[in-house]
Amino acid sequence: MQFIDLKSQYHALKTSIDARIQKVLDHGQYIMGPEVAELEAALAQLTGAKHCITVSSGTEALLIALMAEGIGAGHEVITTPFTFAATAETIVLAGAKPVYVDIKPGDCNIDPALIEAAITPATRAIMPVSLYGQVADMDEINAIAAKHNLSVIEDAAQSFGATYKGRKSCNVSKIGATSFFPSKPLGCYGDGGALFTSDDALAQAMREIRVHGQSQRYTHTRVGVGGRMDTLQCAIVLGKLERFEWEIAQRKQLGDRYAELIKASGAPVDLLPVADDRDCVWAQYTVKVEDRAAVIAALKEQGIPTAVHYPRPLHRQPAYESPDCPADSLPHSNAAAARVMSLPMSADLTEIQQLQIVEALSRALRGA
Ligand SMILES: *Cc1c(COP(=O)(O)O)cnc(C)c1O
């Protein structure tokens, strides 16, 4: 069993993906070829955002968003410590300071009730992460941002395809940034990402920053990056879009089924709650257990791969720790980091595999 089954997905889409790759090889426009604009139009339509700008990775998407908002030295960005390092890394790369706010103990997303206390005159933006595929509490976050005149950049690397009150992730705040890393809900076969906004000026700024700050060829009106997504990767994502709606529905169903099976097993597992007003795409199907190391070892013995997202919150990472935010602060992030584990998840996971996984999990917990 694989943790994420990309092979079955490729076999289901082989004809279309192969044809699209061949088309790029035939026309030879490897950089900014026609598939780039085609994908941007398709993704803008899918999310409902006015603009989509593809970029070279999810990390680059976050950095470009911060640069386009003029965020840099002397500024602070409020975010969660319970995320992949790229979230805080890009804030530091932009020259600003990440300010961590603790998560809610249930869904592990940033707790909006704690955000206002973290705002200072230096704050410029809030960067919530829609962790595991569930959109953060965007109405509350957007309202705080509006009151204090802050930007909101959704780190939607794990939530592309998720919905919040009928709106799509990436179109629930001023800027949405996602990743097409192969294991994300919509992945390519290398690195890729995209930015979303409905603000024309911001979209223009992000397009320019993506290509070295050029407003026209060899006119560099601002400092930028080499941040384009290549044509081949755009072609691959276009191929994957052909069954993406089915995959979203499938992931939601698999998530519901995991929850039912785990509850029925009676195993001592804490499930992550999904709010009634949103649909989760389960980038990771993550649960919380006691004695995690023993559970993971027992599952491994039974041939079931797992992962931990994430074992150490960013305020406890050597590169990001700071005396302003001691290791024992942010108790919900610390508690989640000690207990979370992710089970195999991909749209092609079968019911039989799910049963095997939950039976093994239940056995491991009884034995542990
Ligand atoms: C994957 C991920 C990123 C980075 O995306 P890349 O495409 O790998 O650069 C950023 N934030 C979160 C929450 C992620 O899961």
Structural notes for this entry:
- This protein has a 7-stranded mixed beta sheet, sandwiched between helices. The protein has a 3-stranded antiparallel beta sheet with strand order 7-6-13, with no helix packed on it.
- With 368 residues, the protein is of the alpha/beta class.
- The chain is built from 11 helices and 15 strands.
- It has helices at residues 6-27, 34-47, 58-68, 86-93, 138-148, 200-210, 231-240, 244-265, 292-301, 331-339, 351-367, and strands at 51-55, 76-79, 97-100, 123-127, 151-155, 163-164, 167-168, 175-179, 193-197, 214-216, 219-220, 270-271, 278-279, 285-288, 340-343.
- Helices cover 39% and strands 15% of the residues.
- The chain has 2 domains: 6-242, Type I PLP-dependent aspartate aminotransferase-like (Major domain) (Aspartate Aminotransferase, domain 2), CATH 3.40.640; 243-367, Aspartate Aminotransferase, domain 1.
- The protein starts with 5 loop residues before the first helix and ends with a helix.
- The longest helix is centred in the N-terminal third of the chain and has 22 residues, at 6-27.
- Strand 2, helix 4 (86-93) and strand 3 form a beta-alpha-beta unit.
- Bound molecules: pyridoxal-5'-phosphate.
- Residues 57-59, 83-84, 86-87, 129, 155, 157-158, 179, 181, 191, 193 line the site of pyridoxal-5'-phosphate (PLP).
- Pyridoxal-5'-phosphate binds at residues 57-59, 83-84, 86-87, 129, 155, 157-158, 179, 181, 191, 193.
